[in-house]
């Protein structure tokens, strides 16, 4: 079968022991997922999006205004609450952005151009399960369209890629063929970057997390309160630090938030409290994903496959 080979071992019982820049042991990468405006909509795609606060979906004959306006909260209000939070604490973050969504919010594109946060391409559209039905040529065109669009809106040539949870068996190969990508984050299988054999060459993978992620407000077992999200992040950071102090290696902690969810005022408090907590901990730093990629290639250059 085509596509990436599965690896059930990874680094095994002895992961590499190292320090991140600044002699820190745990690097936190906050990923702001910006998707609002890139989702399915009836007038453009002939189908409503299902990724709302509810478990049902309107059929193709009824426009789902409720989900549309729920998404718009993220672009109109939530994203700016998160941006203010990032500015307040002056931490570097990564924006996992759908190119179409950024096109539709010029003020956000301007905000991004004025700062040094990196962009992780999240597709041109925010397509989910249907992406796996794309032909290789269709997916190649989607990748190229996203790259070109984000370069126009943010002045960044994106170096990383992460689709809506469902990469195809061709995705990583297409990124390798493109030649401009340094890594992808279409994996959830580790707490450290690693290289994957892709078209006979090593390609960097920086895994993401659906656990350190505000998606748990919606997917069971859910967070009943923002305090639960904060507590989950705090306990994970403390445990990773304890492991590192006992010689079990440094770690990357990816924290994923969404403007329509964590941009809500009560939920934003969880991210605020975690940032404050992490800033007070010794051996912890915030890093952009692109800096993680550059550090890893320099510190652990890929072997010839």
Can you tell me about this structure?
- The chain has 305 residues and is an alpha/beta fold.
- It has a single domain, classed as TIM Barrel, CATH 3.20.20.370.
- The chain has helices at 42-45, 65-89, 99-103, 106-113, 136-154, 171-178, 226-245, 265-280, 289-299; strands spanning 26-34, 94-97, 118-121, 160-161, 183-184, 194-198, 201-205, 251-258, 284-286.
- Strands 1, 2, 3, 4, 5, 6, 7, 8 and 9 form a nine-stranded mixed beta sheet that branches.
- Strand 3 (118-121), helix 5 and strand 4 (160-161) form a beta-alpha-beta unit.
- Helix 2 runs parallel beside helix 8 (265-280) and helix 5 packs across helix 6 (171-178).
- The longest helix is centred in the N-terminal third of the chain and has 25 residues, at 65-89.
CATH class: Alpha Beta
Q: What is the overall silhouette?
A: globular
Tell me how many strands there are.
9
Q: Portion of residues in helices? A: 25-40%
| Average residue-wise pLDDT | 91
Summarize the main sheet.
Answer: 9 strands, mixed
Structural class: alpha/beta
How many individual helices? 9
- The total tally of domains equals 1
The CATH superfamily is: Glycoside hydrolase/deacetylase
Q: What name does the CATH topology carry?
A: TIM Barrel
Distance between the termini: 20 Å
Question: Stretches where pLDDT falls below 50 for ≥5 residues?
Answer: none
Q: What is the beta-strand fraction?
A: 5-15%
What is the element string, with H for helices and E for strands?
EHHEHHEHEHEEEHEHEH
- CATH architecture descriptor text: Alpha-Beta Barrel
Radius of gyration: 19 Å
């Amino acid at each position: 079968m085509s596509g990436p080979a599965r690896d059930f071992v990874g680094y095994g019982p002895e992961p590499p022991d190292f320090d991140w820049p600044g002699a820190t042991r745990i690097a936190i990468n906050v990923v702001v997922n910006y998707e609002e405006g890139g989702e399915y909509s009836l007038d453009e795609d002939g189908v409503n999006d299902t990724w709302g606060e509810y478990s049902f979906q309107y059929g193709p004959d009824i426009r789902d205004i409720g989900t549309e306006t729920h998404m718009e909260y993220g672009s109109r209000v939530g994203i700016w609450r998160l941006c203010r939070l990032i500015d307040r604490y002056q931490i570097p973050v990564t924006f996992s952005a759908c190119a179409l969504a950024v096109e539709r919010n010029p003020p956000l594109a301007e905000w991004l151009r004025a700062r040094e946060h990196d962009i992780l391409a999240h597709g041109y559209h925010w397509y989910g399960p249907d992406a796996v039905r794309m032909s290789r040529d269709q997916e190649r065109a989607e990748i190229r369209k996203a790259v070109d669009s984000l370069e126009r809106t943010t002045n960044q040539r994106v170096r990383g890629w992460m689709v809506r949870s469902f990469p195809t068996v061709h995705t990583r190969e297409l990124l390798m063929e493109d030649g401009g990508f340094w890594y992808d984050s279409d994996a959830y299988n580790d707490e450290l970057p690693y290289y994957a054999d892709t078209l006979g060459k090593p390609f960097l993978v920086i895994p993401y997390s659906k656990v350190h992620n505000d998606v748990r407000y919606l997917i069971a077992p859910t967070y009943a309160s923002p305090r639960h999200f904060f507590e989950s992040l705090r306990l994970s950071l403390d445990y990773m630090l304890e492991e590192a102090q006992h010689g079990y290696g440094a770690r990357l902690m990816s924290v994923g938030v969404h403007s329509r969810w964590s941009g809500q005022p009560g939920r934003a408090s969880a991210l605020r409290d975690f940032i404050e907590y992490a800033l007070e901990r010794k051996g912890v730093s915030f890093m952009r994903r692109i800096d993680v990629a550059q550090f890893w290639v320099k510190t652990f250059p890929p072997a010839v496959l």
